[in-house]
Amino acid sequence: MSSSTKPILGITMGDPAGIGPEVIAKASAQQSVYELARPIVVGDAAVIREAVKIANVDTAVNPVGKVSEARFEFGAVDVLDLKNVDIASLKLGAVSAMAGEASFDAVTTVISLAMNHEIDATVTAPINKESINKAGHHFSGHTEIYGEYTSTKDYTMLLVDGNLKVVHVSTHVSLRKACDLVKKERILKVIQLANEACLRFGIKSPLIGVAGLNPHASDGGLFGWEEEKEIAPAVELARQMHINAEGPIPPDTLFSKARGGQYDIAVAMYHDQGHIPLKVLGFLWDEKMKKWESVNGINITLGLPIIRVSVDHGTAFDIAGQGKASEQSLLHAIEYAAKMAEGGQVEW
Predict the structure, then answer these.
(1) What's the domain of life for this entry (predicted)?
(2) DSSP state letter for 87
(3) Strand-pair category, 298-302 with 76-81
(4) What's the whole-model pTM score?
(5) Which tens digit of pLDDT belongs to each residue from 209-234?
């Protein structure tokens, strides 16, 4: 593939006080990224320059005012410079309205670029929810921002690590509210989105495992009623639509079965139910070295009119500026975004 036909990926800077800029610097210093796509970072060029120093990588920074000015050349990372961070007052590892505003600006800018077809896909580095709310933007995460700014009502979060794929009925809400959101209509929509995603990625006749909400999927009603009243009816409706779905399945066994290949994708009822199994598999902490040995897994938002792939880790304020952060998840996100933009099959 010639360089002029490779997909253009807009990569948001993330929170400038977190590890986003340094993992971007590390990823941008790898030629494999430029073999896959034409990346352009959306954020503050001065922040990326500092991140290059922190990451101790050999790459220059090329600030541009618009996407058409980018050179997309390995050795000089292009940055659509929003000039929205005062480096002198930026404190790494700390919550601030300035950092929240800068990261939010990068996200809304990259969404606009994708909606206007100036870029082919978006990749997001982590933001800090407290910082963006401190800046006056009351969203609970990237997924909700993308939903709002693309005018999308029905969307869901897909997490992927290896062959384990999990979508969510709800994400960034309290556990008490998450239980209230376990409704037949929403569960059915998420099953449909899961099925469409699997088909898009080349999985023929995907088998979808749907988790229960309660322990042992309520054990026939002993521990709750949601399985009988909401989840099972949603699964039955999906089957009537010729979708291969099974459930409700006890959550403590579903994810192991999905990891082992029995199910192509799993539907989780709430945030932690789906995130914990993914992160137990993909995140490995080395206590002796006091750092993450592995940070794998990516986050894809399904149902949007544009492509959004993200790292599946946070801002890691505790190690920001130390050069320890791993770029693994970002590299995987870039790979998936590039393949999705090309319309090709992603290797799960």
Answers:
(1) Bacteria
(2) G
(3) unpaired
(4) 0.88
(5) 999 999 999 988 888 999 999 999 99
